[in-house]
Amino acid sequence: MSGIHRLKFMIYSLKSVRNAQVQNQTVLLRVDLDVPIENSIIKDDTRLNAWLPTLEFLLKNEAKVVIVGHLGRPEGKEEEFSLKPVVNWLAQKINLSATEKKIGEFDGWQLSDSVSVLENIRFYPEEEKNDPQFSQRLASIAQIFVNDAFATVHRAHASIEGVTHFLPSFAGLRVLEEVEVLSAILENPKRPLCVIIGGAKIETKLPLVKKMCQFADDVLVGGEIAKNNQILSEVSKEKAQNCSLLVADLNEVQTDITPESLEKFIQVAGECQTIVWNGPMGLIPDSDNPSQTTFYLAKMLSESNAYRVVGGGDTVGFLKEHNLLNNFSFISTGGGAMLEFLSGEKLPGLVALEQNSPQIQSYS
Q: Residue 222's closest CA among 294, 142, 123?
């Protein structure tokens, strides 16, 4: 259906890394390192490959690069959340070897005279607190900051927002591409436009369902958040004016949406020209009852002629496992960041890059 779309969207004007004078400068490069790892083996390197063009650009232009990122949600310096497997992956990619080394006051690895990697930045509690003094110490190891970690731009953390107050700051190539693609969906999408939201994380996704109804023609809700009847009451006013909301029924054991709901989803999505998908319809790997509907929905979408954007770690990993990922139009590295961007939220990491306050500030 075609609705009235009144939400005012925030489209960003970002300074590109291509315009930064990086020659002979040390660049603090924030990237997405949060990938699934089992027994020191990376299960899905989609997020890692996404920022390699920015690293290559910086090295080609004779910059020294200090890579910073996080893995998981550690409580202190826990070995299981060490970035060593990611560092080994990168070393193989660029044909180098890694040796442990202090970079400023931070633990990390040196791969060459031009490339080093900090240990998991979330090992420091000041990171998520966006502590100004910690941000300044982090910034002190470089002369320029580049953010290419789209998956975390919705977090006001030290390595995302804080450091921009102390260094000239620029957007990496991947962040620029994400913003361009998602902005186009907000500004001038081919309609009808359908948003499919699944997975868990009810506390973060549920509030966004209402906002999705302010720009999408159809919003389809599956996964664990479909258990919450609050969805219907929250969007009841917008539904009549702005969009068609369809909340799936779940099977008896609450592990998947029903075949009947899947059929409705496929019918609605099949009539759309733009489709955004985030989150599986039910439990996927490591489950006694893996979601069959997620596979059938993925198969249908992979064969659609619509412009299809997919995001979220579980969804992207599922598509890659079933060799369907390359059939989608655009793979966003963000899950929550993608949904928040499309809902019109101000994302701290992008706001910080846009405002770019390079003057050194003093905190006592």
A: 294
Question: Is residue 235 within 8 Å of residue 209, measured between CB atoms?
Answer: yes
Per-residue model confidence as pLDDT tens digits over 150-196: 999 999 999 999 999 999 999 999 999 999 999 999 888 999 999 99
The predicted pLDDT at position 226 comes to 81
Q: Before 259, cis peptide (omega within 30)?
A: no
DSSP helix/strand/coil, 268: helix
- Residues 147/172, Cβ–Cβ less than 8 Å: yes
Fold classification of 17-177+349-355 (topology level): Rossmann fold (3.40.50)
What is the C-alpha to C-alpha distance for residues 93 and 275, in angstroms, rounded to an integer? 33
3 state SS of 122 = helix
Alpha-carbon torsion (260, 263, 269, 275), positive or negative? positive
Class of the CATH-defined domain 181-342:
alpha beta
Looking at the chain, the domain(s) classified CATH 3.40.50.1260 span 17-177+349-355, 181-342
With a CB cutoff of 8 Å and minimum separation 6, the contacts of 335 are 151, 278, 279, 311, 312, 313, 314, 315
For 126, counting Cβ atoms within 10 Å of its Cβ (0-12 exposed, 13-18 middle, 19+ buried), the class is middle
- Give the span between the Cα atoms of 207 and 20, in whole angstroms: 37
Measured distance CA(351)–CA(232) in Å, rounded = 32
Q: How do 41-42 and 37-38 pair as beta strands?
A: antiparallel
Q: What is the pLDDT of residues 307-332, one digit of tens each?
A: 999 998 889 988 998 899 999 999 99
| Positions in the chain short of pLDDT 50 | 1-9, 240, 357-364
